[in-house]
Structure formats: C-alpha cells, structure tokens
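EI: anyone free to look at a 507-residue chain?
SC: sure, send it
EI:
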Amino acid sequence: MTSIARKTQGTLLVLLLAGCAVQPQPFEAGENEKRANDLLARVNADQEPIAGPIDLYEAMARAIKYNLDGRVELMNLALAQRDLDLKRYDMLPKLVASFDYNGRDNYSGGVSKSLLTGNTSLEPSTSSEKDVLNRNLSLSWDVLDFGLSYVRAKQAADEVGIAEERKRKVINRLIEDVRTAYWRAASAERLMGRIKELEGSTQTALAQAERQEKAGLTAPLAPLGYQRELLSIRRDVQSLGRELGVAKQQLAALMNLQPNAQYTIALPTQSMAWQPLEFPGLSSDDNLALLKVAIENRPELREVAYQLRSNGQESTAAYLRALPSLRLFAGANASSNDFLYNKDWLGWGAVASWNVLNVFRLPADLDRVKAQGQLLDQRQLALTTAVATQVEVSRARYALRLDELNTAKRFDEVQDRISRQVDAGFKADKLSRQTQIREQMNSLASQVRHDLALADLQNAYANVYASLGIDPVDASMSTTEPVAELAGKLRAMWAKRQDAVALGGSR
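SC: here you go
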C-alpha cells in the first residue's frame, strides 16, 4: 500500500469518527436569554405610534397591518410565490460548467495484445499526462423533464391561490374578533369607572351594616339580610368588572400592541340605528342568490377548487412519467492534456431512455389521482352543505341579536327612568340608601348588558359577511399603507355596506 493510499484511509477514518462524535447540544442559559430578548424586541417593532383615541376602523387597520397571525399567512403567500418562481426555472435548459482534475504519481501507460497470437504488439506507451484538467460547458434539455416541470409549475401556481384563500380566511376571522373586542373595550372604557365607584359605595354600606349588627341596635336578622343583599350586589359588580376588565387587553393583543400598552377608545355615538341587513344588488330574502354568492366566494371552497385543479394536473404528470425521455445536449470542451491532437472541441448528441416499469405503474398512479379527486369532491360537497347552514344561521343570528339589542335598549331606558325616581326619593328621605345602591347596580348592569348585546350584534354582523365570503378588506388595500389611510379606506368601504358605525362615527 502506497503512502498516499494510507493517508487517504487515515483521513476518511478521522472524518468518520468526527461524524460519530456529534451529540445533542442544548442551548445554554445565555443563548436562551439572548433569544428571548431578541424576540421581545422584535414582536412589536416598527409600528406606528398611537396618536389618539382608537376607533373601530383604526383597530381594524392595526389588526390587518400588525397582527402576527395575519403576517404569518402573508409570509406563507410570499413563500408560495417564491416557490412558483423557482418552478419556472426548472423548465429552462440546463447550462452546466464543469472542471475535472485528475493527477497521479506516474504515467498510466498501456500496451496492445494481439487477439490472434497473444503476443504483445506494442511497447508500453501513454496518451495522457500525469496531471490533466478537463473543462466543459454543456447545454442540455430533457423533453420529459420540461413537461413534468411545466406541470409542477402549474401546481405551484395553484398553491399560490391556496395560500391567498387561507389568508382571506384568517383576515375574516380577525375582523370578527376585532369588532367584538372593540365594543367590549368601549364598554369597559365607559363603565369601569362607575363599576369601581359602585363597588366602593357597596363596601362602605356593607361596613356600616356590620357595625350596626355588632352594636345590637336592631334585631340581628335585619342587618344580616341587608349584608346579604349588599354582598349579592357586590358579587354582581365584580362579575361585570371581570367580564369587561380584560377587554382592552384582548383588543390590544389583536392589534399586536404590548400587553401593558396604554390607549383610549374613541367611544361610538349612542344614536346609531341598526337595521336588518341589505346587500347591494341582492334581495335579503333570496336565499338561493345569497347561497350562490357564498359558494362562489368562501375561501374554504375556493381552496378545494384549487386543490382539485392541481390534482387534475397530477394525472398529466403520471402520463408523462410513463413516456420515453429524450435528452438533447451540446457543449464546448477543453483539456490540458498535451498528448491530445485536438485539445479543444465542440460536442453534441442526443440520448433516449425509457423506464418501462413506469408503464406498469401508470394504472396505479391514475387510480390514486382518481381517489384523491373523489375525496376532494366529497369534501367540497360537505363544505357546500356546511356553508349553506352557516349562511342561514348567521342571518338568523343577526336578526336575533338585533332583537336582543332592541330589548336591551328598551330595558336600559326603563331602568334609567327608575333610577332617576329612586335618586329623587333618596334625596327626599323617602327611600333607603340600600334601595339606591340596588338600583344603581341594576342601572349599571343594564348598561353593560346593552353594550354586550351591541358587541354580540357586531360579531354577528361581521359573521354574516364572513359566511358569504365577502371580504372585510378591499383588494386595493395594502398593509404597506399608513394606519390612518388604511382606516379611512375601511370606513368608506363599510359605509357603502350601510355599517351604522361607519355612518354614525365616534365621539
């Protein structure tokens, strides 16, 4: 064995042992801290500062622009587009430059032997130098590869469509959540101060009742009953506070603000008139027309349609794989071997090959494509049934929420008149402090229920459009626009849809 061979074996052994020595390596505490600091610094970075009270459409604009779930889907769409760009390159011919160096410590040499006599007919000779560098620039094009690459590019284009529909679905859900969270946050902004004030008054009255009980000035049962009623009122107050206390944090999370971000809500006007839904160019009673709109526009059904079209391309790919391959090539070659008479030359040719086993595989490939198509078809039929149900349920839910809002509004008006009468009676020493606190609690609870009913109506309103597949964002809008400009476009778009918030404004 030569020294070069021994060195080569030694090198290979060292590399093999080095590969076997790789072990799991957990991140160190310093690395985890650095990663955490980096994520915290970037999660809310590059956002426009809040310039004033946030209304509904600014909340929508900030959610569309900065919500991380939306950004993930936007990045998925961009990635699908980049994959499509790469697939287009696969259809091009291959242009390959190669350099091939071979060296040895002696000449290879060779002799010739007569096949008739067995005698050596030529003394040892060589036609190659010890060190040879070959250079090659070749252009090749495989007809079968081009056909398959074309099919894959069309499927990649459908993947872009699928990514777009998934983004639409996320935006629809995001706008629904923003509408609900905004109205709850507006209620919290308007009523949390009163809730804390009422809880303080209740606590003061409760302490007074406890002192009366300990002093024994009255029969024990009366102050105990009074305390029970006050504690019941306090429990209801705490329940209302708990329901509204996290509303602004939830809205902040949807807008991707920091959890401790301080901001105010632009309170909507109280004179908004909500009406049964009407859709431009459609009758709200034409169930079939509304269902057709939903079937045409729902992102889930469009996604399956793209998948079906992509699956149809797979049968074309199966047929192409069963065909013979024809590769055409041409190239320029050069060699440093001085023993060659022509050290530079042009070469060309064609190679045909056929994997005959792919012909026997073709029926199985086509059966799989057919089964996949049948599965997708059943999925779209199931989705059609689900969408039809969702359209009817969303419309019925909106009508129910509208009735509930009207009832809550009337209840709040009646409770307001009762509260004014009780306040007047308390000032005239005709009614007790206990009665006043109870009615203040009832008044506050009715206002909260009114606001929550309005929040539920807003969610139902957005859900109707989502069930029909009507986008809450126009295609001309872009996340690169400033928040104020995007919010203005959203307000104008929803005003055309007779959204009472867009028409009524905020105060």
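EI: The longest helix spans residues 143-215.
SC: 👍
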